Each structure stands twice: as C-alpha cells, then as structure tokens.
Amino acid sequence: MVTAVAVQLTELCGPGCLLCSGAGRSVNPRSLSLDTFERILLEARAVGIKRVVLTGGEPLVHEDINGVMDLVDTMGVEVEVVATGYRLEQREPALKRLGSRLVRLSTELLGGTASTHEKTNGRSGSFQEARAVLEVAHELKVPSRVRLIPTPEALREIDGFRAAVARFSPEIVIDRSSSHLPRSVFELRTDPEERCGDAANEIVAALAASGRVYPCLAAIGAQAVDEKEAPLLEVRLREALAAVERVEGRRCQLCRAGAASALATLGRAV
C-alpha cells in the first residue's frame, strides 16, 4: 500500500469556484510557504513517506509553483496532483519538469454534462478544464484518476459522465465524502471508522494551507477538526500523526456504504 501525505498548497482557485476545500475563502486565501512545504517534505521523508498529494484550491496556481517543483525534485518524492484544470495551459511546463516523479493526475466532475458540473461548482468553462487534466495526463503518459461527486444530478447523468472520460481510461472513484457535499460535514463530525475520500487508505494525514494537520482532505473543507486540535507543523510529523489518531473518530463511517451504492449505480450503467 502506498503511504502519502496530502498537502493543500493553496486556497487560491478559479474565480467563483465552489468545488474544493478552499471554497469559501475568497477573502485573503492562504498559501503554503516554500519553507513550510520544505519542512513537510523533510518530516515526511524522515518517517518513510515518499509520496505527496498536492491539492488546493488549485495547487497549480500557487504563487511559486516552480519553487514547489524544485523542492519535489530535490527531495526525490513521488507526486500526485489533484487539479481543477484552471489555467492548466500556463502550468503544464511545471508538470513536465516533474518527469517520472509525477505518478498521477487527478480531477473531479460533478456530472456528465457541462451544464450540471458548472451549475454545481459555479464556474463557466470548468467542465472542459477538468477534462483537460485527463488530456494532459494522457499526453504525458501518466496515470489519471477522476472523482465523480455523486450528487443526485450526477447519478442521473452516468452515461454522460462515462462518455466524457472514456477515451482517457482513467481510474474512477466515487467520492461520497467530498468536502463540498453537506452530508460529509455531518459524517465527519459524528461517525467513526472510515477515512473520508481515501478508499485505498493511502493518505495518513492532510496538511492545510494554514500549516495545520487534519485527518483527511474532507476535514479541511468541512472544518470538522477544531483548530486547537490540529497541531502546527513545528511538531514533527511523527508526533502530528499520533495527534491525528486522537480525532480518528471524526472520519466518516458511511463513506464506504455510500461509495458502494454509487459504484453499483455506475456498474449498472456501464
């Protein structure tokens, strides 16, 4: 099993976007400093973690994305980038610099048509931008993953979703616990056992752009963990991981059942 740390590089995203854990922070959105990111990589490597999942906001619009890539190259870690596709054409050279260190490109869709996706996330053109992430992965010969957010509208458009991504042959994940789904907030606060949005149990901790540690990416967006319970990065990651165990009960119990149901729906359509 791959063990990874998720890092929210920035809360910056495309204008009006409501999709991710950076949503709702349009006023003074935060970004991780290069010094803090370097410390994350050093601490992760010290405990044997060799993969980071870069997310946001839109990670590729970080103010110094080239500096981020330089640190990744220096530390010798593998990278997955979870991107919306916003301004992707301007940031593609940064992705290419990663070479073999880039092990996956991921994106999210909220429906099988542009109208449904863009109505939900609030940004015109975002459907094609998300598909562009899969196109770039195909061009770079990098594995891709697409998360379908199973809103009722999305589940009614399974055929359209299948058609939209078919030629790229991505791994498909049903993300019942995406941080912009209201139900995930409730589950994170009340139900134990399951790691939200991480069915493969790859991610051991998620680090927000604030520099605080959370049990999973959905917890950042839902703010399910009180700030005082999320230790600062000055605490070494091995200590932070121990602290995360204290809030294990805030991970959602119903994610697995919800994902199984959505996958069954997808399977019938396929």
Write the layout of secondary structure elements.
Blueprint: E1 4-8, H1 34-46, E2 51-55, H2 65-75, E3 78-82, H3 88-98, E4 102-109, H4 114-121, H5 126-140, E5 144-148, H6 152-156, H7 158-165, E6 171-174, H8 182-190, E7 203-207, E8 213-214, H9 217-222, H10 237-245, H11 255-269
Parallel strand pairs: 1-2, 1-7, 2-3, 3-4, 4-5, 5-6
Antiparallel strand pairs: 7-8
Helix pairs in contact: 1-2, 2-3
**N to C succession of SSEs:** EHEHEHEHHEHHEHEEHHH
CATH homologous superfamily heading: Aldolase class I
Structural class, by secondary structure, is alpha/beta
Oligomer: single chain
The rounded distance between the terminal residues' Cα atoms is: 28 Å
Q: Give the integer mean of the pLDDT values.
A: 75
- Overall tally of domains: 1
Q: In the CATH hierarchy, what is the class?
A: Alpha Beta
